[in-house]
Amino acid sequence: LGEARDYYNSSIAGNGAYFGVAPWLILLLRAAFVLMAAFSLWFLYRYYRKTNELMWLAVSSGVLLCTTFLVGSLGQGYYSMLLFPLLMAVLLPGSPMRNWPAWLGVYGCMTFDGFYSDRWTAFGWMVEYNKVTWGWSLLMIAVFCSLLFRYLDMRSDGVAGMVPPVRPESDAPRVPAGGIDASADTATGAEDAVGLSKQR
Question: Where is this region: Disordered (predicted)?
């Protein structure tokens, strides 16, 4: 399990072995994705674990799985079905999946489209063999950048060290029978923290 095979393997190590990528570059790429995952998991745990548990669980599990597919010794395209909770997090307000690069990555790792070409043989072959690896990579980068920019905004507002208190359900305002859209009244932990800066 510690050795990456060079066939039917979409992990960074397996893809690099197939294409003859230098070992130092493979190691650098793996380390980069581990660092991106570490920041993403920390941010989600810090600002969402108590304020939006569903967001924290769905996105954190997806980040952890996607990193494992990329950094581990074996990653195959059908592993992508395990990312379904991360994909469905797009329905949650403030989700890091609400951007087009993330969904371009989803297309890359989940599509059944073939890219072989008689006219551009080398290019089509390259895209076909790299689409899953590139898809996972783009998905990770998109989620990481979304969370990083959110954190930088919080730092610029001076609220990066604050965690908004969790309001007990008994203190929550009651919604009239007519009701309002629940999503309109839902705020993520990070968004609440950013909002604190406007009250200072």
Answer: 167-200
